[in-house]
Design brief:
This is BTB domain-containing protein. InterPro entries: BTB/POZ_dom (IPR000210), SKP1/BTB/POZ_sf (IPR011333). Pfam families: BTB (PF00651). This protein is mostly helical and 341 residues long. The protein has three domains: 87 residues, Potassium Channel Kv1.1, Chain A, CATH 3.30.710.10; 82 residues, no CATH class; 113 residues, no CATH class. Helix content is 54%, strand content 7%. It has 13 helices and seven strands. The strands form three sheets. The chain has a three-stranded mixed sheet. Strands 4-5 form a two-stranded antiparallel sheet. A two-stranded antiparallel ribbon has the order 6-7. Strand 4 and strand 5 form a beta hairpin. The radius of gyration is 28 Å and the shape is elongated.
């Protein structure tokens, strides 16, 4: 799934094609935007100061032309934030959003931060969907090209959020990194990371480590094992222990009074899950295709057809419950955010 687009600028459109405007802004790639100085001055202290100074005459032009360093696509989006029209939908490209933020800072336009934060949050949502989709497609060990592409965009967004003090964006995109394999993340470099301090990168790694610790919480895993035993016991009348029915073909983990607690294969699944969570703490680990296959492999010793059938029917729903529990645990873990100086 593509999370960015790189369409060429299609040309200047309304309201920036008004021939009665009193100023022309020229983009770095040569496009002319016809604007009104009073609108720019109201939105930008930098433009207001510029317009208060004597302007050199532009040869052969009846309306002053002001060359700018922004390309047409970025300038168009910036002006649509400023102009008193309906809120624009900004391009979903990290490069363009970064250019808009830089221009907003340069021209001192406060409206830019909120507009770009909203656009970045939309992009993060698409990133999360794309990462989930990649896992659902059965990518093994997280070494596919798509994971690398998603890691590039994710790290770009994190770096930009830190640089411009967008805490909500940083928190949400940090959460997305949990479902990306660590080897892919640490081997991915984007130029935006060069603008960050070492402490900003360390905070992202610390967040991941804390999430891994919380998600593999022993008490939570024990409670889920009991949940399976109580809700999804997939067997008929094979072994009656204290008026409770258990499959005699499944080995059982017992408590210190030798009471059955959970099937051995489920204990092995949670052991496998704990290891995988330390590699990739996101909820996707629990109910991925790989997780379902592992559970079935661990339970392959049980030769009872009815037990096997019912386990295969019910375990995916149980794995979703495990994933939801992990997600709930992770929602309480904060990213230690600090605006990049």
């Amino acid at each position: 799934m593509e999370t960015q687009s790189s369409e060429e600028f299609q040309g200047v459109e309304a309201p920036f094609d008004d021939p009665s405007a009193d100023l022309t802004l020229q983009s770095s790639d040569g496009h002319h935007f016809h604007v009104y100085r009073i609108i720019l001055a109201q939105a930008s202290l930098q433009f207001k100061t510029t317009f208060s100074l004597p302007q050199p005459a532009t040869e052969g032009a009846t309306v002053p032309v002001l060359p700018l360093t922004e390309d047409a696509k970025s300038l168009d989006a910036l002006l649509r934030i400023i102009y008193p029209t309906r809120s624009p939908k900004l391009p979903g490209e990290v490069r363009v959003i970064k250019n808009i933020l830089e221009a907003g800072r340069k021209y001192e336009i406060e409206l830019v931060l909120d507009a770009c934060a909203e656009s970045l949050l939309d992009l993060v949502e698409k990133l999360e969907e794309a990462v989930d989709s990649e896992h659902e497609d059965g990518a093994k060990d997280g070494q596919g090209n798509q994971f690398k592409t998603l890691a590039v965009t994710t790290l770009q967004v994190y770096a930009i959020a830190c640089q411009y003090g967008l805490e909500d964006v940083a928190n949400k995109v940090a959460h997305v990194t949990l479902s990306l394999p660590l080897p892919v993340l640490v081997s991915t470099h984007v130029p935006e990371l060069d603008m960050l301090s070492a402490s900003a990168l360390q905070r992202l790694l610390d967040y991941r480590m804390e999430c891994a610790k919380v998600a593999s919480d022993f008490d939570s895993m024990e409670n889920l094992q009991s949940e399976w035993t109580e809700r999804y016991r997939p067997c008929l009348l094979y072994w009656d222990f204290d008026n409770q029915v258990y499959c005699r073909f499944c080995r059982w983990k017992t408590d210190n009074q030798s009471n059955p607690v959970s099937p051995e294969w489920l204990d092995r699944y949670f052991g496998w899950l704990s290891e995988r969570i330390h590699e990739m703490p996101g909820r996707i680990v629990a109910n991925s295709e790989e997780a379902i296959l592992q559970a079935n492999e661990f339970a392959s010793r049980c030769t009872d057809g009815q037990c096997t059938l019912l386990r295969k029917l019910h375990f995916p729903a149980f794995a979703d419950l495990v994933a939801s529990t992990i997600e709930e645990l992770l929602s309480d873990v904060p990213l230690k955010f600090s605006k990049q100086a």
